[in-house]
Amino acid sequence: MKDPIHVMNAEQIEGLRKAANLGARTLKGALEFAKEGVSLDQIDEFVHQFIVDNGGYPSAIDFHHYPKSVCTSVNDVVSHGVPNSYVLQDGDYLNIDVVCYLDGHHGDNSGMVMIGDVHEDILKLSKVTREAMFKAIDICKPGVRYNEIGETIQNYADQFGYFVNREFGGHGIAHELHLAPLVYHHKTKSSSTAEMVPGMAFTIEPILMLGNRFQYVQWEDGWTIHAPGMPSCQWEHIILITDSEKGHEILTWREGEEHPFETK
Fold first, then answer.
1. By the number of CB atoms within 10 A of the CB, which of 62, 125, 193, 260 ranks highest?
2. pLDDT tens across 37-60, in order?
């Protein structure tokens, strides 16, 4: 993306904050709702109803003709999983990606949920993926360059031998769901070297994979991206750059959530 990076005014920031809060509350409810015996279609119905009941609209519906209200990526589905009749089983691991529209802005976040007795390798992968996201969030403040996000995430993932997915990235967000810049989660010369300034908002949403030897398969639904036999995990938050001492605010922070590197 070569477009200018959008800088919000105070009114726009409040609009994004409301949408992000609804997205966070929706995701929290969906993560709690997802249990053994629940189908992906039921999660979709839950998300749709929760957003509508709270005055919003599910942004995913008909976004480039996407057919449902939420993305549900199970096991070795990497991203953009379209909900279907699949019923969650013991040992499954699931990413739920919620996007909603409220007060002229979009809220976007995702998280992992473990179903029953999940393999320890997957538990560690999910934990490290979330930690990598927070490592990147922690550096965000005015004057930091966007390419430092990918450097931070890859440096952390490399310590554990995990592969950072190259095909899916974060993005600016506000009145449109996808704005500049494209936020790369790995080291690349393609990453923006623009500096963060107060009023900018974007997602950080790394996907870490157990290895780098895999092939993608796109399902007939035209959306679901599958890497057969290669587990992956993803976490996502919206970050607002501020002029506070910390330099940023996590707009999609969920009630009860804990920062992995901060003590209470």
1. 125
2. 999 999 999 999 999 999 999 999
Tokens of 63: 């976004």
- How many degrees, rounded to 5, is the angle at CA 252 between CA 249 and CA 253? 75
pLDDT band at 183 (very low <50, low <70, confident <90, very high): very high
- Tokens read off for 219: 């399902």
**What is the rounded CA–CA span in Å between residue 166 and residue 156?**
15
Secondary structure of residue 22 in the 3-state scheme: helix
At 228-238, the pLDDT tens digits run 999 999 999 99
Which helix (H) or strand (E) is 31 found in, with range? helix 10-33
Q: What is the CA radius of gyration of the chain?
A: 17
Within the chain, strands assigned E span 57-58, 71-74, 77-79, 93-102, 105-114, 163-164, 170-172, 179-183, 201-204, 207-209, 217-218, 225-226, 232-234, 237-241, 248-250
Beta-carbon contacts of residue 189 (< 8 Å; ≥ 6 apart):
none
Q: What is the pLDDT of residue 2?
A: 67
pLDDT recorded at residue 1: 46
